[in-house]
Amino acid sequence: MRKAPPWRRRTGPTSRSSSSSAVLEAVFFDVGNTLIHPYPSVSHVCREILASAGHHHGLEAIDDLMPLVDAYYEDRYRSDDTFWTSEEETSGVWVGMYALLCRRLGVGEEEAVVLARRVYDEFGDPARWRPYPDVLPALTRLRDRGLCLGAISNWDSRLEGVLGGTGVGDLLDTVVSSADVALHKPDPRIFELACERLGVAPAAAAHVGDHEYADLLGARSVGMLAVLVDRHGAGAPDAIADFEALEDALGLEG
After folding, report:
1. Cα–chain-centroid distance for residue 7?
2. How far apart are CA 185 and CA 176, in angstroms?
3. Does the structural domain 8-35+132-249 have CATH classification 3.40.50.1460?
């Protein structure tokens, strides 16, 4: 692990839970929809697997069904304290989510679960993920400033392999996945654990993510600077659209 760099003084507004003007030592990132995205897309992979099993009818409806899948995820996430905290719980929710999609397309119950497991397994392959174009340059710039970098993600134990396979892992000093530590965002303890791994205080760290509940709430609860990124133009207030604006959002001097 790299030694913690000299603190850099931040300028501009902050999103901390306190008004203290700390200085920045480390930046942590959420992973999915922040650093990397499914390739080519979740719906594409689902269509591919369904077609390979001989299900061709109705595949054009998958894009229209994705909001239903997203709603299933959000409901489980906010209502189930064990979601993301173990391999079993994580795979169970994802398989349930994709099985729901398959059933809506007319696939029988048992086969829906089998195909859903194939989709879940497919996303353990780094080839199914791509970094956003601005990620590697932005992380390199932050490292050049002497900052420690890490990931804090609600993910299973495949996370390090996925990040390593996309090249993002080479630029990170630590990777904390919820299933590995039995804690999930926004639990303050996962943010505190990540800071401990890099030997920095939460007040000297920032967290960047795409989910207001998981990322902003959790980071702010321990006094970290929180930055919201809105990759899909959802219109989230006070969010940055991409990493071109990241250093300004972190209050780093040019």
Report:
1. 26
2. 11
3. no
- What are the tokens at 210? 């795409």
| Residues contacting residue 74 through CB under 8 Å, at least 6 positions apart | none
What token pair was written down for 20? 């203290």
Q: Would you state the structure tokens that stand for residue 146, as one six-digit string?
A: 């002497």
The dihedral built from the CA positions of residue 82, 85, 89 and 95, taken in this order, carries a sign that is: positive
User: Identity (one letter) of the amino acid at 5?
Assistant: P
Whole-model pTM: value is 0.89
**For residues 104-130, average pLDDT:** 98
Please, what is the average pLDDT of the chain?
Answer: 91
Q: How far apart are CA 24 and CA 8, in angstroms?
A: 5
pLDDT value at position 76?
85
CA angle 81, 87, 92 (to 5 degrees): 70
Domain spans in the chain, listed from the N-terminal domain onward: 8-35+132-249, 38-127
CA distance 91 to 232: 26
What is the total residue count of the chain? 254
Backbone angles phi, psi at 207, to 5 degrees: -130, 135
